Amino acid sequence: xDTLTVMLIFGVxxxxxxxxxxxxxxxxxxxxLPFAAVLLGIHTAVPVLVVLAWLLAVYIVIxxxxxxxxxxxxxxxxxxAIGLPVGMIxxxxxxxxxxxxxxxxxMIGVGLRGFxxxxxxxxxxxxxxxxxxxxMRIILFTGGIIHGAFGTGGPFMVxxxxxxxxxxxxxxxxxxLLWTVLNTILITKWTVAGGVWHPQVFKTVACALPFxxxxxxxxxxxxxRADERLFRMxxxxxxxxxxLVLFYGLTKG
Length: 253
Description:
- The chain is mainly α and 253 residues long.
- Helix content is 82%, strand content 0%.
- It has ten helices and no strands.
- The two termini are 22 Å apart.
């Protein structure tokens, strides 16, 4: 394919995936990566998607700052931060494909169960519950390990956020603040270490910006129009779809 066609297809992928993250607060990178890797190559796709995800998260944090709930956010960061260095240390020792396959199955199972449960008649959004139980702490710690090793620990944070943050706007902006922090660390690490940023990355980010802006605009409008039940269904749908995409990527790898 010629360069223009590649950029147009990639732009459509950016628009669709970042619109979904604009609605829910998560999912754009894991959904876009399999397509972006084919179109751009993995060494260009990863930094481009991280920068685009960072820009989206920063926008949502700035525009919805008043909705942030600092106690749940600090609870997430504290427990994930404990697991993060563990994952980094174990990166070369962990069976990557097996763990990612288990993560994909986890995402598919939780997403499907949550979608079916939320879709039932009479479903109501419950107030926060069991947010500081041992189980929730283990979930976040495990998410930190997986994120430190493979950068895909977000689904564990979503499980916690679904219980701790019943309001859709609080859910979205609190998760986006977490992605802002994690991706800032990642971008800083790449900048200091070198070898990641090359001209094609910057050119691709520049070409993708109009599609990113369109996705942000559409996702923001849909987020505010959706009621809490429809929002939860979308969250679980994106989690389920992300699991399928992750699993498909493993079978092709």
